[in-house]
Design brief:
This protein is 66% helix and 5% strand. It is mainly alpha-helical. A two-stranded antiparallel ribbon has the order 1-2. The chain is elongated. The termini are close together.
Length: 149
């Protein structure tokens, strides 16, 4: 297994979903959808076999945060809401990756390695800081995973 961002067969894991979900939770569905689309479009330009799937899932996660905002308009959006929304978003991301990314076996192998820590990392930020910002946030942290060719 080689780690590189320039060869075929690699995937990118990061904390991109925190921004999209937070935008939706704070600004509603239009803001969440736009933030998710921007993050998702950027992810698509990075490439890798999960590029499109991750781009779609980031857009969905922003919309999900916005829908939670609408549903809970009259209540405070606290750590529990952010935690639950983040878990649902990350589970949806896994499903989208498995449905869209090809080859399927590599997508599945990547999820086994990345997603459990990814869900827990995003949720740690959400629990401690519901809007996902502050000194604990790791902006643009990428883990490049390469599968052996």
């Amino acid at each position: 297994m080689r780690v590189s961002g320039t060869q075929e067969g690699w995937a990118v894991a990061n904390t991109r979903a925190i921004g999209a979900i937070s935008a939706g939770l704070l600004g509603g569905p239009v803001v969440g959808l736009l933030a998710g689309f921007i993050g998702g479009a950027h992810r698509c330009t990075i490439g890798g076999f999960t590029g499109l799937a991750c781009g779609l899932s980031t857009t969905f996660e922003g919309l999900l945060g916005g829908l939670a905002h609408l549903r809970l308009r009259e209540t405070e959006i606290d750590g529990k809401v952010a935690f639950t929304t983040g878990i649902i978003g990350e589970l949806a991301q896994m499903a989208i990756i498995l449905a869209v990314a090809r080859p399927f076996q590599e997508a599945l192998a990547g999820l086994v390695i990345v997603e459990r820590p990814g869900v827990l990392t995003c949720q740690k930020h959400s629990r401690d800081n519901p809007v996902g910002i502050g000194k604990r946030q790791v902006h643009g942290a990428y883990l490049l995973l390469a599968t052996s060719a």
